[in-house]
């Protein structure tokens, strides 16, 4: 498996890729660049949607005519055609020292989204310990706090049967598993299943393939890895020519391609000279296939 550059996006903090099989579009965000990007690999079309604040993540909706976006303080619908941005309910966060980060839809059409602390407006891995949370946005617009005591909420994913949720709180250097009640959207029985060794970078975004194996992007590690969550064994590692490898998703024909986002924030000039495509989107063609992403059930919200 080798990584090829797909888009020289030069994102400051590229994150959260998601594949829309209906439109054959790849969406991703540039968090600090305050933008949602999308591209159509077949047609070559690309577009950028400017956001009013940090764009933590983007998700697909059942209606298909709008996206669900997690901005710095809460949840918003974004209309790609008109570029309108509509807030859902009231802001969830009321302090400029916190922001939303990664988010994903569960198998029942809810959105789970976590937060992190900002120190003087910048991300910190060493401060803000235990100050973040994981929230659930229900299809009726209700917001529920699922977890507290988190430091840097990051990647999420579900087993193919939906009964296990995998979760990353980055400074723990682990992937944890929860029993997941799909009917209620509730978590239980938290336990560590994957441990990242020192020197491999920090665990960031993740995805799960059709075989139930977990893929992790390594911030500062210039790689993505595949793991067996039942044994904790690393099955594969793919080098990415960008140190800050942030997230990944399956997409393309039959979900047999991995799209990998990266970042260039915090890199010195000499590092950028060595990694000129940092901030780009890369493509890997693994042997395993992925699963379609779940969509937010937006039928109850205007």
Descriptive overview:
The chain has 302 residues and is mainly β. It is built from one helix and 25 strands. The chain has one domain: TolB, C-terminal domain (Neuraminidase). The protein has one helix at 269-274; strands at residues 3-7, 14-20, 25-30, 35-39, 46-50, 55-59, 67-71, 75-78, 85-87, 98-105, 111-119, 122-123, 132-137, 143-150, 153-158, 164-169, 174-181, 186-195, 202-208, 214-219, 223-228, 233-239, 244-251, 257-263, 281-284. Strands 10, 11, 12, 13 and 14 form a five-stranded antiparallel sheet that branches. Strands 1-25-24-23 form a four-stranded antiparallel sheet, with no helix packed on it. The model has no long low-confidence stretch (mean pLDDT 96). The longest helix has 6 residues, at 269-274. Helices cover 2% and strands 51% of the residues.
CATH topology descriptor: Neuraminidase
CATH superfamily: TolB, C-terminal domain
Helix content range of the residues, please?
under 10%
- Uncertain runs with pLDDT below 50, 5 residues or more? none
In sequence order, what are the helices and strands, one letter per element? EEEEEEEEEEEEEEEEEEEEEEEEHE
| Category from helices, strands and their pairing | mainly beta
CATH architecture: 6 Propeller
Question: What proportion strand?
Answer: over 45%
Distance N terminus to C terminus?
44 Å
Main location: cytoplasm
GO biological process, one term: L-ascorbic acid biosynthetic process
Organism: Paenibacillus dendritiformis C454
Family: Belongs to the SMP-30/CGR1 family.
């Amino acid at each position: 498996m080798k990584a090829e550059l797909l888009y020289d996006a030069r994102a400051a903090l590229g994150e959260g890729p998601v594949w829309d099989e209906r439109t054959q579009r790849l969406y991703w965000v540039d968090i600090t660049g305050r933008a949602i990007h999308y591209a159509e690999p077949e047609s070559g079309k690309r577009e950028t949607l400017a956001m009013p604040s940090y764009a933590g993540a983007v998700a697909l909706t059942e209606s298909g005519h709008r996206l669900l976006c997690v901005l710095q303080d809460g949840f918003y619908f974004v209309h790609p055609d008109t570029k309108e941005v509509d807030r859902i309910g009231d802001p969830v966060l009321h302090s400029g020292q916190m922001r939303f980060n990664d988010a994903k839809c569960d198998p029942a059409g809810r959105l789970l989204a976590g937060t992190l602390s900002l120190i003087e407006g910048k991300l910190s891995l060493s401060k803000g310990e235990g100050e973040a949370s994981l929230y659930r946005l229900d299809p009726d617009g209700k917001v529920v706090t699922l977890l507290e005591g988190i430091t840097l909420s990051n990647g999420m994913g579900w087993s193919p049967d939906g009964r296990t949720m995998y979760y990353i709180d980055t400074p723990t250097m682990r992937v944890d598993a929860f029993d997941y009640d799909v009917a209620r959207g509730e978590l239980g029985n938290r336990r560590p299943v994957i441990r990242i060794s020192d020197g491999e970078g920090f665990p960031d975004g993740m995805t799960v393939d059709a075989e139930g194996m977990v893929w992790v992007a390594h911030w500062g590690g210039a790689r993505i890895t595949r793991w067996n969550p039942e044994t904790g064994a690393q099955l594969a590692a793919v080098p990415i020519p960008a140190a800050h490898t942030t997230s990944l998703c399956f997409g393309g024909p039959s979900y047999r391609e991995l799209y990998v986002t990266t970042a260039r924030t915090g890199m010195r000039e000499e590092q950028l000279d060595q990694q000129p495509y940092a901030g780009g989107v890369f493509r890997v063609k693994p042997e395993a296939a992925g699963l379609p992403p779940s969509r937010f059930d937006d039928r109850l919200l205007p």
